Amino acid sequence: MFRFRRDFSAKVSVTCYTYFCVSPYHCTVKCPRGIDVAGMMYGLKRYSLWRNRFKRGLIGPDFSRRFARRIAKTGRSFEPGLAPAFLFKSGVRGLLQEAWTAVALLRKGRLSLTPSRIRRLKNFRRMLGRIIPVGGLS
Amino acid sequence: MKAYAYFPGCSLEKIAVGYHLSALETARALGVELKELEDWNCCGATAYSHVDELLAYTLCARNLAMAERENLDLVTPCSGCYKNTFFANAHLKKDPDLAEHINFALQEDGLHFSGTGAVRHLIEVFVHDVGLEEVRKRVSRPYRGLRVAPYYGCQMVRPRKDHEEVEQPQFFEDLLSAMGATPIDYPFKLRCCGGSLIVTNRRAALSMVRHLLQDALDHEAEVIVTACPLCQINLECYQRQVNRAFGTRFSVPVVYFTQLLGLALGIPPEPLGIGTEFVSPASVLPGG
Description:
The complex is a heterodimer of chains A (138) and B (288). Chain A has one domain (18-129). Chain A is 47% helix and 4% strand. Chain A has six helices and two strands, in the order E-E-H-H-H-H-H-H. The longest helix of chain A is centred in the last third of the chain and has 17 residues, at 91-107. Chain B has two domains: 2-121, Glutathione S-transferase Yfyf (Class Pi), Chain A, domain 2 (Up-down Bundle), CATH 1.20.1050; 139-272, Rossmann fold, CATH 3.40.50.11810. Chain B contains twelve helices and eight strands. The longest helix of chain B has 17 residues, at 53-69. The chains are: A mainly alpha (138), B alpha/beta (288).
């Protein structure tokens, strides 16, 4: 993924496999040279998002962006607010199975239909806005 | 009674409500006071670090600053929150420039990070601070011969936080033994459950869940016990989808270690949130 040229500038290519990494950190703890491989994968993902360099249709980048926007909006994660955008990506069978899971979670009292918010949301958003470069992600 | 600032994390609000309830109940029974952080926010999970590292640290720093204000160490039952908050704390302590930048942002909420607190996983508090001997003494309904698969998952043990054993950890097994259960040793106890791949690459995640469940069953586990909400959801709620996808017939109960411990301490199932599972543990857990 990193290829160094003769002038030592690095050519970075992000493949769809980058987004298959869910950071289990096996590589990081096993690397004999102490390289934080999982940290590098995070770096590649950030790079691909900043430069908009990823395969179209890949769910990972879109999921990360939507997740970040959701947190900036309410301060907390809300699965039912994120899921609908991806329900159709797994085909009709996947959609039906996810719908079944959602209904079962709802019946078990494990799914909320309204997002939870932090109380000092205005302060929270201003806080994010002070961080460069992405700011409040609004 | 030792007190901690309790950071439940977003999953424990609803989808893993059984973990939240049982964490509070078992902590109380073991003489641990969990004071919930008054206005905690999401730790950023894994997705936030893909977008911006500084923002991800800022989210964790806000929670850390609130815990510091109470003069308490932060404890969380969620392995993802634990990993993110632990490393944010460590990086900010090590890098004054980073801490200064983030403190500039925290001013907007009247907070300040100074690096005086520690970050702990709830299981670590039970094993090390309460102690296995104390747990053993308080167990009133020991599990005699129950074969339990301890599932560590990834982020509770990796990356290495200090000098602890990450290749063959034993603290989960030790806690289960203190409850009178028989922990099984199986190769997949440290493997990934698929994590957020369940959203971004469903087929791959279901395959990972399948292999994990199969490995636990091959070693004659009667129940799988986890310390992470995402692992519980993937391993339990998606069993039906694994069965559909691969023609298997899994029906393995997957509960939180706090629920198993709570029952052993004599707490009834309902306050422990038992009864909200997709695969009922009633057939294997007494009172479950």
